[in-house]
Design a protein that fits this description.
The protein is an alpha/beta fold. It has a single domain, classed as Rossmann fold (3-Layer(aba) Sandwich), CATH 3.40.50.2020. It is built from 8 helices and 7 strands, in the order ααββααβααβαββαβ. It has helices at about 30-35, 60-65, 80-90, 95-110, 130-135, 140-150, 175-180, 205-220; strands spanning about 70, 75, 120-125, 160-165, 185-190, 195-205, 225-230. The strands form 2 sheets. Strands 1, 2, 3, 6 and 7 form a 5-stranded parallel beta sheet that branches. The protein has a two-stranded antiparallel ribbon with strand order 4-5. α4 (about 95-110) packs across α6 (about 140-150). It is globular, with a radius of gyration of 17 Å. The two termini are about 30 Å apart. Bound molecules: zinc ion (ZN) (2 copies). The site of one zinc ion has 7 residues, from α1. The site of one zinc ion (ZN) has 7 residues, from α1.
């Protein structure tokens, strides 16, 4: 793990996983950090884990490349990431998000794969519809975006991209219905050639990130990447 300056607002002196003292103040101790499900060799475009180290793209990206240019994700969405994200989203433990978002920022700062890409001009969190936001009280994507933006000193905008239509939970639907479900659900103000990173907690099938990327490109974005905490191992 490269040395880095941790923003003081992120300081945690206890590990969120084992409760032992965490001397690095990153909220996850070194031994728990090593045990986390780091994303294995994956598709350079959509971050789907690949079984062969000879492959660089998954079959889906070869046949029909998505609207986003690439996905960055430090973790695979497996135990204990799934439990942590569940606690954050459904039990209101929003503070657990900071140590994970910090790991995302560190990985983007010091990439081990696909280096050489310049940082995007703007970070946008995947928005929630105002009704869902009122229910949960916070948008986890916005919390992650705030931390990553602070850590990497990149501008973010929490208003430019909006979800204007309520949609059904993507996980209840099949592939075709998932696409249909999101059509016309997002709106964005003009992006005038800016490159954008879309920030979210988990990427499952990629339908949401793909649909929003399409909207952003239509609104003038020059390039869109997705930055997420975790990627599910199977689409
Ligand atoms: Zn620990
Ligand atoms: Zn892929």
């Amino acid at each position: 793990m490269p040395k880095t300056q941790v923003n003081h607002r992120l300081l945690f002196d206890q590990c969120i996983l084992c409760r032992n003292a965490c001397h690095r103040h990153t909220g996850i101790c070194q031994s728990c950090l090593q045990d986390l499900p780091w994303l294995p060799h994956h598709c350079t475009r959509c971050a789907l884990p690949l079984s062969s180290s000879l492959q660089t793209l998954c079959a889906d990206c070869l046949l029909k490349p998505p609207a986003f240019s690439l996905i960055r994700a430090p973790f695979s969405y497996q135990f204990p990431l799934d439990q942590l994200v569940g606690k954050i989203k459904y039990s209101g433990h929003a503070s657990l998000i900071a140590p994970l978002a910090l790991q995302l920022a560190l990985q983007i700062q010091h990439p081990t794969e696909s280096p050489g890409h310049p940082f995007p001009d703007l970070l946008l969190p995947v928005p929630m519809h105002r009704h869902s936001l009122a229910k949960r009280g916070f948008n986890q994507a916005e919390l992650i975006c705030r931390i990553v933006s602070q850590q990497l000193k990149l501008p973010s905008d929490f208003r430019r991209l909006r979800k204007t239509m309520e949609t059904r939970h993507q996980r209840e639907l099949d592939k075709k219905a998932r696409k249909q479900n999101l059509r016309h659900a997002f709106e964005c103000l003009p992006l005038d050639g800016l490159s954008v990173a879309l920030v979210d907690d988990v990427m499952t099938t990629g339908t949401t990130l793909n649909e929003i990327s399409r909207v952003l490109l239509n609104c003038g974005a020059s390039r869109v990447e997705g930055w997420v905490l975790a990627r599910t191992p199977e689409a």
